[in-house]
Design a protein that fits this description.
Blueprint (H helix, E strand, L loop, with lengths): L18 H43 L9 H16 L1
C-alpha cells in the first residue's frame, strides 16, 4: 500500500478549515439574505402605496372618466396639493 505523506510544514489547505469561519460565513450569508429580502419587501410596499395613491388621484380628479389626467385635471390636482402644503 502507498502511504500518503503529509507535510508537517505545509498542511493541505483544502482539508483544513477553521470552524469559527464556517459559523461567521453562515451568519454573514444569513444577514445578507435578510437585508436583500427586507429591501425587496419595502420596495414592493412603496410601489403598492404609489399605485394606490395614483388610483385615488384618478378617482378624485378624473372628471371626464377617461382613465388619465389631462392638463386641466393635473392643474386642479397641483393646486389642491399646493393648498394642502401651505397649511
Amino acid at each position: 500500500m502507498i502511504e500518503e505523506k503529509k507535510s508537517i510544514y505545509f498542511p493541505i489547505v483544502s482539508d483544513f478549515t477553521f470552524p469559527e469561519m464556517k459559523n461567521i460565513t453562515s451568519k454573514l450569508y444569513l444577514l445578507v439574505s435578510i437585508l436583500v429580502m427586507s429591501f425587496t419587501i419595502s420596495a414592493q410596499a412603496a410601489d403598492a402605496n404609489k399605485q394606490a395613491q395614483h388610483k385615488a388621484d384618478l378617482a378624485k380628479y378624473d372628471t371626464n372618466k377617461d382613465g388619465k389626467l389631462d392638463a386641466a385635471e393635473k392643474a386642479a390636482m397641483k393646486a389642491d396639493k399646493e393648498k394642502a402644503n401651505k397649511k
